[in-house]
C-alpha cells in the first residue's frame, strides 16, 4: 500500500535553557499572530514531532517494552507513549507560566531541545477530559457565543416534544466553558443565572448603564 506524503512544517521549537532551568516554546515569527488569544496560566496541548526518532527503523517499530523496561510485556505502540511509532508525533498538556515576545514558558517536558512544534491547541475540558456533558451532536456549536473568556453553547432545540417528561432540573440546556473548564447548566440553573445577571445589571451605576445604551 502506498501512502501519499503529508505536509507538516514547524510552527516553533522546544527550547531548553539548562543554565536557568527553563523550558519554553519559541514561536517562529511568521506564526506569531496565531498566539493571539493565549494568556498566561492557560493550559495548552503541544503537538511535537520527535525528529530524532524519525528513522525508517523507528517507524517500523510496532511493539515496545513500556518505559524501556524489558520486564514489561511487549505492547503495541498505540497503547504507549513510546517515541518510536509509525509517525513520531508526541502530545503534551502543559501550562503557560509566562509569555515574553515569541516565547511561551512552560514546565519541563522530556522532549529534547530543538524538537519541532507542529501545532498548539487550547486545552478544553469538554474535549480533552470527557465527562457526562451534552453530546457534541446535541450542542448547537454554530450558535455559540464568546463573551470575555466565557464560551456559551446552547443545546439544540429539535425534538423537544420527546422531552415532555423531563423536568427543568434534569434537562441540560447550555454548556459553559471558562478557559479550559467546562460545565453544563440545567434549564432551572440557566433561569436562575439569567435572573441573577439581570439583578447585577440593574445595580450597575447609572453612569455606566447610560454608556451601554
From TrEMBL:
Domain TsaA-like: start-end pairs: 8-132
InterPro entries: TrmO-like_N, UPF0066_cons_site, YaeB-like, YaeB-like_sf, YaeB_N_sf
Keywords: S-adenosyl-L-methionine
PANTHER family: TRNA (ADENINE(37)-N6)-METHYLTRANSFERASE (PTHR12818)
Family as reported in the entry's similarity comment: Belongs to the tRNA methyltransferase O family.
Stated name of the protein: tRNA (N6-threonylcarbamoyladenosine(37)-N6)-methyltransferase TrmO
Organism: Thermococcus waiotapuensis
Lineage: Archaea, Methanobacteriati, Methanobacteriota, Thermococci, Thermococcales
Amino acid at each position: 500500500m502506498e501512502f501519499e506524503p503529508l505536509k507538516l512544517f514547524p510552527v516553533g521549537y522546544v527550547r531548553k535553557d539548562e543554565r536557568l532551568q527553563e523550558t519554553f516554546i519559541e514561536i517562529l515569527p511568521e506564526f506569531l499572530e496565531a498566539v493571539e488569544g493565549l494568556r498566561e496560566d492557560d493550559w495548552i496541548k503541544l503537538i511535537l514531532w520527535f525528529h530524532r526518532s524519525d528513522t525508517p527503523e523507528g517507524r517500523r517499530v510496532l511493539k515496545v517494552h513500556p518505559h524501556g523496561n524489558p520486564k514489561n510485556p511487549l505492547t503495541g505502540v498505540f497503547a504507549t507513549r513510546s517515541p518510536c511509532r509509525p509517525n513520531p508525533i508526541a502530545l503534551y498538556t502543559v501550562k503557560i507560566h509566562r509569555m515574553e515576545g515569541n516565547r511561551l514558558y512552560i514546565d519541563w517536558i522530556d522532549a529534547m531541545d530543538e524538537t519541532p512544534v507542529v501545532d498548539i491547541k487550547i486545552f478544553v475540558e469538554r474535549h480533552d477530559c470527557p465527562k457526562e456533558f451534552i453530546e457534541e451532536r446535541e450542542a448547537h456549536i454554530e450558535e455559540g457565543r464568546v463573551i470575555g473568556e466565557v464560551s456559551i453553547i446552547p443545546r439544540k432545540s429539535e425534538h423537544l416534544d420527546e422531552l415532555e417528561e423531563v423536568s427543568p432540573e434534569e434537562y441540560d440546556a447550555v454548556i459553559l466553558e471558562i478557559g479550559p473548564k467546562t460545565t453544563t447548566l440545567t434549564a432551572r440553573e440557566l433561569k436562575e443565572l439569567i435572573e441573577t445577571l439581570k439583578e447585577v445589571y440593574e445595580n450597575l451605576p447609572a453612569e455606566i448603564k447610560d454608556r451601554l445604551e
